UniProtKB/TrEMBL annotation:
InterPro entries: Emfourin. This is Metalloprotease. It comes from Streptomyces spinosisporus. It holds the Pfam family Emfourin.
Amino acid sequence: MRIRVRRTGGFAGIERHAEVDTSGRPDASEWHALAEQAVAGGHSTPPVGVPDGFSYEITVDGRTFYAADPRLTEEQRMLVSRVLKEGA
């Protein structure tokens, strides 16, 4: 499974993006479960965020969904955080 996150917005307007490929990882099942839960709470179009908040474009195996602060689900927040931390 490939998971890609693109974060835009925020006070400084700095864009960040990262991608994780879970194939061959010993924790792949954790990633898959988290990604499925995050996708379930996503939007098919970019939602309206708040001033200086972050907006997210999250793609899981070619399927893209959107989320924005402050209305991220806990699963979306965890997935975004892990991908931006561990991804390349």
